[in-house]
Every structure is written in C-alpha cells, then in structure tokens.
Amino acid sequence: MHLIPDTWTHFHILVSVFPSIGLLLTTGIYIGAFITGNDGIKRTGMLAFALLGLLSIPTYFSGDFSVAALRAVDKDVTDDAIWWHWAWGWAGLTTLALTGIAAIYEYQRSGKTGRICKDMAHLVLGLALITLGLMAVLGEFGWEIRHHELNLAAKVNNIVSAGDVPQGIGTSQAWSHVHMILNHFPTVGFVVALGFFIMGLMQKNDGMKRSALVLFTIGGVLGAPTYATGAAAMWALTDPMPILGVTKASIDAHRDMAALSLFGLAATGVSAWIALWRYRYLAVFTDRMMYIVLTLGVITLGLMAETGHRGGMINHPEIRTEALPQSSAAFFSPQVELLINNVIWFVPWQTVHFFGYSLVFGTVMAVVLRVLGFWKSVPFSAVHRFLPLGVFGVVMNVFTGMLMLMADTFRYVNENSFTPKMWFLPIGAITVIYFSLSDSLWEVKAGDDAPIAAKYVAVIVLIAWVGVIMGGRLLPYV
After folding, report:
1. How many angstroms separate the CA atoms of 128 and 122, rounded?
2. With bands split at pLDDT 50, 70 and 90, how would you rate the model's confidence at 237?
3. Coil, strand, or helix at residue 382?
4. Distance of CA 79 to the CA centre of its chain
5. Treating both helix axes as pointing N-terminal to C-terminal, what angle do 39-54 and 79-113 enclose, rounded to 10 degrees?
6. 437 within 8 A of 276, measured Cβ to Cβ
7. How far apart are CA 8 and CA 287, in angstroms?
8. Cis peptide before 166 (omega within 30 of 0)
9. What are the pLDDT digits (tens) for 404-442?
10. Average pLDDT, the chain
11. Tens digit of each residue's pLDDT (9 = 90 or more) over 85-100
12. How far apart are CA 125 and CA 23, in angstroms?
C-alpha cells in the first residue's frame, strides 16, 4: 500500500481531492438532513465541514511546496497555469475555511443549547455551495498544470475534422478528462461513507446509517462508468500518439487493481442496497448486515487506495519512487483481454449479458407501471419485492459488460451509442434507490395513487434504462 506520501507533491495529490469531492458528498447528506429534519445528521455534517475546512491548510501549503519539484520534472509547466491555479486556490480554500469555521461554531453552540439555529445552518449550507463552485474551477486549473493530454483534445479534433485521420485516432481525450473527474468519487465517497457509517453505528442513528448506505450504493454504481472511462482513457493516452513517459504496462498495472476495485465496489454497493431493501420489511438494521457492509467497505477502500496510487504513477513522474513497469506479461488484464477475444468465450458472456438486461427491464417495467397507476390492485410493497431481481441483473451486466469491453475496448468506446449508454447507466441505477427510500411511496396501498414525485422518478428510471438497452444494442450498428 502507498498511503503514506514521501514528497510534498505526493501529499498534495492525496489531500487535494478531499476538499472538493468530500465537500460535494457532505453537502448532499447535509441537504438530505434538511429534507428529513434529522438534527443528528445535520450536526455530523457540520463536523464533517469543520474537518474539510481544516484540510484547507495542508492543501494550500502542500501545493505551494510542490511547485519547485513539479518544475524539475516537467519543463512544460507554465507560469500562467500555476498562477491561475494559485489564485483560484486562494478563493476556494478561503471559503472552505470559512465554511468550516461557521460549521464548528454552530456544532459547539448547538451542543450546549440542544437546538440548531436555523439561520446558522443555512449559512453553512450557503457557504458550502459557494465553495463547491469555486472548487470545480480550482480543480480544472489544477489538472491542466500536469495533464498535458487534455490540451491534445483540440489538436486531435482538428485532425479528425480535416479528414486526415491516422490509424488509431478517434479515442477522444474527453474520456481522460471524464475519468479524472469520475474516479475520485468512489474513493473519496467511501471515506465519507465510512465516516458517517461509523458515526451512525456509534450513535445508533438509523438516518445516518441510511445516508451512509446510500453513499456506498452510489459508489458501487459509479464503479462501472469509472472502469469504462478508464478503459477508454487507456487508448486516448497510448494510441496512436502516446503521451511522453506513459507506458502501456503501467496502465495494465492500474487496470489489474481497477478490476479488483470494481468487484469490491459491487460487493459493498449491493450489500448496502440489500440492507436498505430489508429495512423496509424489518424496520431495523441488523448488526450482522451492518458489519458485513463495514468489512466490505474497508477492504474496498484499501483496494481503491492502491488502484489510485497506480493510476497516479502513470502520469505523475514527480511521485514515482520506482521505475514504471515496461512489460505487461506480469498482469492479468491483458491475458483476460486475449482470452475474451476468442469467440468461444465472448458469446457465452454476451448471452448472459442479454439475460441480465431482460431481468433489469422486466423489473423496471413492473415497478414503474405500478407507480404510474397500472396494477393498482396491489400495494407498492408487493412490487418492491421484485427489485432484487433487477439488482441481480445489473450485477450480471456490469461484469459481463466489463469482459466484453476488454475484448474490443477501442471499437466500443468510439461507437456513437457508447457515450449515452454510459450516461444513462448511473442515472438509471442511482434513481432506483428512491424506490427503497421514499416513505410516502412505501405507504401506497392497493387502490392508492403513488405520489407525483414518485411518478417523475419512475419516468426518469424508464427513460434511462431504455437508453441503456438501446445504446447497448446499437453498438454493432452505429
């Protein structure tokens, strides 16, 4: 494991992702506390904001101390890029610190009085939202300092639009950009989820447990598009114009751990969702289920930490303590890739993939039709029992889809229908969580109409999964 940084640049890369992604996830939970009126989650959210505020100090100084080391390994780093990142860093980290100060003040005050001040709670939320906007801009300027491949996008687009397309050009650098943004969500998300989950276990607060379980589930869902965008980024970085200093073997080392992380994310996410699903029938979280989720979450976080380190080694020579691997022979991902390319192995996985889609769409139709007003003779709790079949279908599709993607990554990621398929997949999977969270929907009895909000969600779920299935079926044709 490589969790202990040995240079300022390494430390900055590790710590800088938490203020932005951690703030986004904490803000989401904090808003959920407003909606549900759960003061326990509000106070825990304030404590999380305070911790994130503290991170503004090491984030700033580690970045400041990293400049000299970065210039030593990369002569293409420009003064303008560093200045803009520094300027936005001041703005973003200052508002982050103010958010933390306001949050810890109200946390301590409410602890003494036993009541949360509404105005202060909204002030913390407002500062957090402003900081999120600044952090988004700050992150973009930070990535542009070292990730020169992002500047190749315009160059490649000009080549393509001119009709002069060398063999292999076609994988957009946009995949690299999206992968850099997306891959931090499962990793940082699991840290935030574990924090809230442990606090929920200690305080025996079911609302806090549910919030953490939702984060675990979302992290599991995001594993699939994160892996897919990483596979696309592999081609964008290596073919036909490899980025200087990037080796295919270093990417394969990252891919091996990414595959293991995908298994861990899926196991934790599915376990967390099962806990949410069972809660509807038991009205309590069992200790056994909670500790299963906790154990899987810790193991998965360890896998993702190593995956992230290997990913950082690909394009960050300033943090390398050893030479990059030059041969892919020691890694299993290229071997699996060759194996699945054989039609004898590809066809069975494709067949299982289609069965998975059938399970998913059948479940979606049953639940959505009831929410939209059909089958009103049965309560919603009856169709809620179908949901595990759909989840099982999603799991089947994630792993068979991963294997099929490995067989011909370049072709798949450059098909026109692949991008919308990857957008619709997390939308469809995440919105389904609503069906196990909504109290008003759960209370719909036989003959009752579902709430209007549930109907909007049902339409989104139906459109998303139709988009996923159409995108997948059109891959060979467009």
Report:
1. 10
2. confident
3. helix
4. 32
5. 140
6. yes
7. 41
8. no
9. 888 778 888 888 888 899 889 999 999 989 998 888 999
10. 86
11. 899 999 999 999 999 9
12. 11
Number of CB atoms found within 10 A of residue 46's CB = 28
Q: How many residues does the chain have?
A: 478
Alpha-helix runs per DSSP H in 147-247: 152-161, 174-182, 184-203, 206-238
What is d(CA 365, CA 357) in angstroms, rounded to the nearest whole number? 12
Write the CA distances from 450 to 376, 381, 430, 459, 463, integer angstroms.
9, 12, 20, 13, 19
Packing angle between helix 418-431 and helix 452-473, nearest 10 degrees? 150
Q: Can you tell me the distance from the alpha carbon of 435 to that of 410, in angstroms, rounded to the nearest whole number? A: 36
- Closest C-alpha to 304, from 186, 182, 179: 186
According to the model, what pLDDT value does residue 240 have? Answer: 59
Chain Cα centroid distance, residue 188? 9
Q: How many CB atoms lie within 10 A of CB 170?
A: 17
pTM: 0.85
Report the C-alpha gap between 396 and 70 in whole angstroms.
Answer: 43
Question: CA-to-CA distance for 171 and 411, rounded, in angstroms?
Answer: 9
b (16+ CB within 10 A) / e for 379-417: bbeebbebbeebbebbbbbbbbbbbbbbbebeebbbeeb
Contact 73, 318 (CB under 8 A): yes
Residue 77 φ/ψ, nearest 5 degrees? -70, 125
Which contacts of 275-280 are long-range, i.e. CB under 8 A and separated by 24 or more positions? Answer: 275/213, 276/210, 276/213, 276/214, 276/217, 276/433, 276/436, 276/437, 277/384, 277/387, 277/388, 277/436, 279/206, 279/210, 279/436, 280/381, 280/384, 280/436, 280/442
Tens of pLDDT, residues 70-83: 777 777 777 888 88
The pLDDT confidence band at residue 177, using thresholds 50, 70 and 90, is confident
Q: Which residue has the tokens 């003494």?
A: 112
- Measured at the alpha carbon of residue 185, what is the angle toward residues 405 and 422, in degrees to the nearest 5? 35
Q: Compute how many other C-beta atoms are within 10 angstroms of the C-beta atom of residue 418.
A: 20
Q: Are 359 and 389 in contact (CB under 8 A)?
A: yes
**Which residues are CB-contacts of 218 (< 8 A; sequence separation ≥ 6)?**
189, 269, 430, 433
- Structure token digits, residue 168: 């292999």
